Amino acid sequence: MAAGWERRRASIESGSALVAEWLIRELAPRQGDTILELAAGPGDTGFAAAPLVGEEGRLISTDFSPEMVDVGRRRGVELGLTNVDHRQMDAEHLELEDDSVDGVICRFAYMLMADTAAALAETRRVLRPGGRLVLAVWRGPEKNPWVAIAGRVFVARGLAPPPDPDAPGMFTMAADERVQSLLGAAGFKEIRIADVPIVFAAADVDDYVSSARETGGVFARAWEAASEDERMGIKEELADAFAPFERDGGYELPGLALVAVAS
Description:
The structure is a single chain. By secondary structure, the protein is α/β, with parallel strands linked by helices. Helix content is 44%, strand content 24%. Strands 1, 2, 3, 4, 5, 6, 7 and 8 form an eight-stranded mixed β-sheet that branches. Helix 6 links the parallel strand 4 and strand 5 (127-138). The protein starts with a helix and ends with a strand.
């Protein structure tokens, strides 16, 4: 998915800009801080912190995928950033010393990790006393039609399995209680949770399908498994379901993120 995320970076960042703003505001990085971003993808959320920590500070931009690390590195060069280290790293096994960073950012990734509890424990380990974690995950499918509608269509057609509540997935951290429990078990004491809306725009159904195929692994696999007739039917179902979200000849598909700050 790395190439697709690089191509679609601008539209993804535009749709979720309010989430990134909330995360950086609540992280409140200071001059000289060391900030770690986990599962950074193209890296833009962390890059917003880089000027705030200054040349005396450092951003460690990481991703599990080396291809995504390369995407982030190219974006950092494009922005002219000189205080960023780009590293391939597993969030469940961080190659960092204890108490070595002042803040951690993780946007839309903890819920997808094989062992979220281990990743959060590692996050707590590398944070210095008083350091903050800011994270974003998704509220439930009923709050995120931008992705849930297509998921329901694929499941109904037998092209994707029903979500497994015990497996990593987009909505496994949708509830406050789940997030608080995971953070508390990892050793975080002060936790605050809020909601932030997002909007993903699509010019038409074809644009939506193209974007989803490039950036969503589940969507891409289900689409490839569908016959041409099934694909036509899927597009018709999407058009019907997206009708309430028509705006100015296209679609504005809403969603809702759960955001949290913990220390």
